[in-house]
Amino acid sequence: MTFSQRLYKKLQPIWRKNHAHPFVQGIGDGTLDSDKFRFFMIQDYLYLIDYAKLFAIGAVKANDLNTMGKFAELLDSTMNEEMSLHREYAKKFNISLEELENAEPAPTTLAYTHYMLAAGQSGSLAELVAALLPCMWSYNEIGTELNLRPGASEHELYGEWISMYSSSEFTELTNWCIGLLDELAEGKPQSELDKLEEIFLHTTRFEYMFWDMAYHQQMWPTDE
Ligand SMILES: Cc1ncc(CO)c(N)n1
Prior knowledge:
Pathway: Cofactor biosynthesis; thiamine diphosphate biosynthesis. With about 220 residues, the protein is mostly helical. The protein has 11 helices and no strands.
């Protein structure tokens, strides 16, 4: 079994909770409250600004031109394809681009992005990939699973979201990242593999927290 498969298998209980979350299920059956989705899109846009930076850091840390080029492609596709989905949704919700970009991050968004950026900036390339992989992988899996539901990808509001994350392009980029993690993990000492596993676990948990944050539209608990 590959390193990534081992992590994936071990963390299945959390991954299944992500799929079962009422937010995800609500996208799938089309019943999600559009206010919750609106909140999610704004927070996810802020998330993606920092997530894209991880790909830029990946390009800096890459050891060969092929890997560097792939990170450039990931940066481009995040900023110009995935984030343009969010910009289209913002239009539907009457949110201006300025409002979108300058929105206030929720505590979970802030914690998640800062954790990933810290792991990506201070760690090895393998650590960076371990931090960003659960995000791509779980969205691709969720999109693909929801796309199997008859009519889900034609839903007036949520259809495009499902089509984006189940697309062959997103799947191909995800698979490339999975392969890269396995390549980088090869021959690493157990202590380094444990570190990779820990990072992968943390961002997997953050994925759940992000769904939950959006479902409850959770900002700071102090209201000021
Ligand atoms: C929180 C989160 N995780 C993963 C993705 C997929 O890129 C996303 N857009 N947002």
